[in-house]
Amino acid sequence: MVCYLLVNCIICHMGIIEGVDKEQTCPNGHQVHHDCLKDWLIHSQNCPLCNETYSSSILVQFKNYIQQKEDEKLFALQNAMRLEELEKLKKLAEKMAFLKFEESINVLIKEKEYEYALSRLDFHDNENQSPERSLKILFLKGKINYMRGRFDLAINQLFKLVKEKYDYPEGFLYLGKAYEALGLKDKAKWAYERVK
Ligand SMILES: [Zn+2]
Ligand SMILES: [Zn+2]
Protein backbone atom coordinates (compact mmCIF):
# COMPACT_ATOMS: atom_id res chain seq x y z
CA MET A 1 0.00 0.00 0.00
CA VAL A 2 1.36 3.38 -0.97
CA CYS A 3 0.60 6.13 1.46
CA TYR A 4 0.83 9.74 0.33
CA LEU A 5 1.35 12.45 2.84
CA LEU A 6 -0.75 15.24 1.46
CA VAL A 7 0.65 18.66 2.17
CA ASN A 8 -1.45 21.78 1.66
CA CYS A 9 -0.07 25.12 0.61
CA ILE A 10 -0.56 27.54 3.51
CA ILE A 11 -1.48 30.33 1.09
CA CYS A 12 -4.09 28.77 -1.19
CA HIS A 13 -4.84 25.68 0.95
CA MET A 14 -4.72 23.40 -2.08
CA GLY A 15 -2.60 20.27 -2.14
CA ILE A 16 1.01 20.38 -3.24
CA ILE A 17 1.76 17.42 -5.47
CA GLU A 18 5.31 16.35 -5.05
CA GLY A 19 7.31 16.24 -8.24
CA VAL A 20 4.60 18.16 -10.10
CA ASP A 21 4.14 21.43 -8.25
CA LYS A 22 7.07 23.69 -7.73
CA GLU A 23 7.20 24.50 -4.04
CA GLN A 24 9.08 26.58 -1.52
CA THR A 25 9.56 26.15 2.20
CA CYS A 26 10.05 28.61 5.04
CA PRO A 27 12.78 28.02 7.70
CA ASN A 28 10.15 26.25 9.84
CA GLY A 29 9.15 23.88 7.06
CA HIS A 30 5.84 25.48 5.99
CA GLN A 31 5.30 24.66 2.34
CA VAL A 32 3.77 26.85 -0.31
CA HIS A 33 3.35 26.69 -4.06
CA HIS A 34 6.09 28.58 -5.84
CA ASP A 35 3.49 30.66 -7.70
CA CYS A 36 1.56 31.43 -4.53
CA LEU A 37 4.70 32.67 -2.83
CA LYS A 38 5.47 34.87 -5.82
CA ASP A 39 2.48 37.13 -5.17
CA TRP A 40 2.74 36.86 -1.38
CA LEU A 41 6.26 38.29 -1.45
CA ILE A 42 4.97 41.50 -2.97
CA HIS A 43 3.36 42.21 0.40
CA SER A 44 5.74 40.50 2.82
CA GLN A 45 9.05 38.61 3.00
CA ASN A 46 7.82 36.53 5.93
CA CYS A 47 6.01 33.22 6.02
CA PRO A 48 2.23 33.87 6.28
CA LEU A 49 1.97 31.24 9.02
CA CYS A 50 4.98 31.64 11.34
CA ASN A 51 6.18 35.07 10.22
CA GLU A 52 9.74 33.82 9.79
CA THR A 53 11.63 35.54 6.99
CA TYR A 54 12.25 33.42 3.91
CA SER A 55 15.88 32.60 3.21
CA SER A 56 17.79 34.85 0.86
CA SER A 57 18.27 31.94 -1.54
CA ILE A 58 14.47 31.85 -1.93
CA LEU A 59 14.01 35.60 -2.01
CA VAL A 60 16.62 36.06 -4.73
CA GLN A 61 14.60 33.84 -7.07
CA PHE A 62 11.72 36.31 -6.95
CA LYS A 63 13.76 39.50 -7.02
CA ASN A 64 13.09 40.36 -10.64
CA TYR A 65 9.40 39.57 -10.40
CA ILE A 66 8.96 41.76 -7.31
CA GLN A 67 10.98 44.59 -8.85
CA GLN A 68 8.80 44.43 -11.94
CA LYS A 69 5.61 44.51 -9.86
CA GLU A 70 6.90 47.46 -7.85
CA ASP A 71 7.81 49.30 -11.04
CA GLU A 72 4.33 48.65 -12.40
CA LYS A 73 2.76 49.95 -9.21
CA LEU A 74 4.91 53.07 -9.25
CA PHE A 75 4.18 53.68 -12.90
CA ALA A 76 0.43 53.33 -12.32
CA LEU A 77 0.64 55.72 -9.39
CA GLN A 78 2.63 58.28 -11.35
CA ASN A 79 0.17 58.01 -14.18
CA ALA A 80 -2.77 58.56 -11.87
CA MET A 81 -1.06 61.58 -10.34
CA ARG A 82 -0.25 63.00 -13.74
CA LEU A 83 -3.87 62.60 -14.85
CA GLU A 84 -5.13 64.22 -11.68
CA GLU A 85 -2.70 67.10 -12.17
CA LEU A 86 -3.80 67.54 -15.78
CA GLU A 87 -7.45 67.48 -14.76
CA LYS A 88 -6.77 70.20 -12.18
CA LEU A 89 -4.92 72.33 -14.70
CA LYS A 90 -7.70 71.90 -17.23
CA LYS A 91 -10.33 72.99 -14.70
CA LEU A 92 -8.23 75.99 -13.73
CA ALA A 93 -7.75 76.98 -17.36
CA GLU A 94 -11.49 76.69 -17.98
CA LYS A 95 -12.20 78.81 -14.94
CA MET A 96 -9.74 81.49 -16.05
CA ALA A 97 -11.14 81.47 -19.56
CA PHE A 98 -14.66 81.92 -18.24
CA LEU A 99 -13.62 84.80 -15.98
CA LYS A 100 -12.04 86.49 -18.96
CA PHE A 101 -15.14 85.86 -20.99
CA GLU A 102 -17.33 87.32 -18.25
CA GLU A 103 -15.09 90.37 -18.13
CA SER A 104 -15.44 90.88 -21.87
CA ILE A 105 -19.25 90.62 -21.58
CA ASN A 106 -19.24 93.27 -18.85
CA VAL A 107 -17.20 95.53 -21.12
CA LEU A 108 -19.75 95.04 -23.89
CA ILE A 109 -22.56 95.84 -21.45
CA LYS A 110 -20.77 99.02 -20.41
CA GLU A 111 -20.45 99.98 -24.07
CA LYS A 112 -24.15 99.14 -24.61
CA GLU A 113 -23.25 96.51 -27.19
CA TYR A 114 -26.18 94.41 -26.02
CA GLU A 115 -26.85 92.44 -29.20
CA TYR A 116 -23.24 91.48 -29.57
CA ALA A 117 -22.99 90.51 -25.91
CA LEU A 118 -26.07 88.30 -26.23
CA SER A 119 -24.76 86.57 -29.32
CA ARG A 120 -21.49 85.85 -27.54
CA LEU A 121 -23.40 84.46 -24.56
CA ASP A 122 -25.46 82.25 -26.86
CA PHE A 123 -22.29 80.99 -28.43
CA HIS A 124 -20.85 80.10 -25.02
CA ASP A 125 -24.02 78.53 -23.68
CA ASN A 126 -23.59 74.83 -24.32
CA GLU A 127 -24.14 71.57 -22.52
CA ASN A 128 -20.50 71.26 -21.50
CA GLN A 129 -20.76 74.29 -19.30
CA SER A 130 -20.69 73.66 -15.56
CA PRO A 131 -24.04 74.34 -13.80
CA GLU A 132 -22.53 77.35 -12.09
CA ARG A 133 -21.39 78.88 -15.38
CA SER A 134 -24.70 78.10 -17.05
CA LEU A 135 -26.47 80.07 -14.33
CA LYS A 136 -24.02 82.93 -14.76
CA ILE A 137 -24.76 83.01 -18.47
CA LEU A 138 -28.48 83.01 -17.73
CA PHE A 139 -28.01 85.88 -15.31
CA LEU A 140 -26.01 87.93 -17.83
CA LYS A 141 -28.68 87.35 -20.49
CA GLY A 142 -31.41 88.47 -18.10
CA LYS A 143 -29.45 91.53 -17.06
CA ILE A 144 -28.73 92.51 -20.66
CA ASN A 145 -32.36 92.06 -21.66
CA TYR A 146 -33.39 94.27 -18.78
CA MET A 147 -30.87 96.90 -19.86
CA ARG A 148 -32.05 96.93 -23.44
CA GLY A 149 -35.66 97.26 -22.33
CA ARG A 150 -36.76 93.68 -23.07
CA PHE A 151 -38.33 93.31 -19.64
CA ASP A 152 -40.49 90.31 -20.53
CA LEU A 153 -37.47 88.35 -21.69
CA ALA A 154 -35.46 89.49 -18.68
CA ILE A 155 -38.19 88.29 -16.29
CA ASN A 156 -38.41 85.00 -18.10
CA GLN A 157 -34.69 84.34 -17.80
CA LEU A 158 -34.14 85.70 -14.32
CA PHE A 159 -37.13 83.86 -12.94
CA LYS A 160 -35.76 80.65 -14.37
CA LEU A 161 -32.43 81.50 -12.76
CA VAL A 162 -33.71 82.09 -9.23
CA LYS A 163 -35.89 79.01 -9.51
CA GLU A 164 -32.70 77.02 -10.15
CA LYS A 165 -30.69 78.80 -7.51
CA TYR A 166 -32.63 80.67 -4.85
CA ASP A 167 -29.52 82.21 -3.35
CA TYR A 168 -28.75 84.57 -6.21
CA PRO A 169 -29.20 88.16 -4.94
CA GLU A 170 -28.14 89.81 -8.21
CA GLY A 171 -30.70 87.70 -10.04
CA PHE A 172 -33.46 88.89 -7.73
CA LEU A 173 -32.24 92.47 -8.04
CA TYR A 174 -32.61 92.56 -11.82
CA LEU A 175 -35.81 90.55 -11.63
CA GLY A 176 -37.19 93.23 -9.31
CA LYS A 177 -36.04 95.99 -11.64
CA ALA A 178 -37.71 94.29 -14.60
CA TYR A 179 -41.00 93.86 -12.68
CA GLU A 180 -40.81 97.46 -11.60
CA ALA A 181 -40.23 98.64 -15.15
CA LEU A 182 -43.47 96.87 -16.15
CA GLY A 183 -45.32 98.45 -13.22
CA LEU A 184 -45.70 95.15 -11.39
CA LYS A 185 -45.11 96.66 -7.97
CA ASP A 186 -46.07 93.67 -5.78
CA LYS A 187 -43.87 91.32 -7.71
CA ALA A 188 -41.02 93.82 -7.67
CA LYS A 189 -41.36 94.08 -3.90
CA TRP A 190 -41.32 90.29 -3.60
CA ALA A 191 -38.11 90.11 -5.64
CA TYR A 192 -36.37 92.98 -3.85
CA GLU A 193 -37.06 91.36 -0.50
CA ARG A 194 -34.91 88.47 -1.61
CA VAL A 195 -31.91 90.53 -2.61
CA LYS A 196 -30.32 90.69 0.84
ZN1 LIG B 1 -0.73 27.55 -3.13
ZN1 LIG C 1 6.54 29.23 8.28
Structure notes:
With 196 residues, this protein is mainly alpha-helical. It has helices spanning 34-43, 56-59, 63-110, 114-124, 131-147, 151-164, 169-181, 185-192, and strands at residues 7-8, 15-16, 23-25, 31-33. The chain folds into two domains: 7-54, 2-Layer Sandwich (Herpes Virus-1), CATH 3.30.40; 102-192, Tetratricopeptide repeat domain (Serine Threonine Protein Phosphatase 5, Tetratricopeptide repeat), CATH 1.25.40.10. The protein is 64% helix and 5% strand. The strands form two sheets. The chain has a two-stranded antiparallel ribbon. α1 (34-43) crosses α3 (63-110), α5 runs antiparallel to α6 (151-164) and α5 (131-147) packs parallel to α7 (169-181). It is rod-shaped, with a radius of gyration of 35 Å. It starts with 6 loop residues before the first strand and ends with a helix. The chain binds zinc ion (2 copies). One zinc ion is lined by residues 26, 28, 30, 47, 49-50, 52.
What spatial form do the alpha-carbon principal axes imply? rod-shaped
CATH class of the largest domain, anyone?
A: Mainly Alpha
The biggest sheet amounts to: 2 strands, antiparallel
Briefly note the structural class of the backbone: mainly alpha
Which regions contain 5 or more consecutive residues with pLDDT less than 50?
none
Distinct ligands, ions and cofactors found in the model = zinc ion
Share of helical residues: 55-70%
- β-strand amount: 5-15%
> What would CATH call the architecture of the largest domain?
Alpha Horseshoe
SSE string, helices as H and strands as E: EEEEHHHHHHHH
Number of strand segments: 4
Indicate the mean pLDDT: 93
Query: How are strands sequenced across the largest beta sheet?
Result: 1-2
The third-level CATH topology of the largest domain is Serine Threonine Protein Phosphatase 5, Tetratricopeptide repeat
Domain unit count:
2
Q: In angstroms, what is the radius of gyration?
A: 35 Å
Whole-Å distance between the termini? 96 Å
CATH H-level superfamily of the largest domain: Tetratricopeptide repeat domain
Number of helices: 8
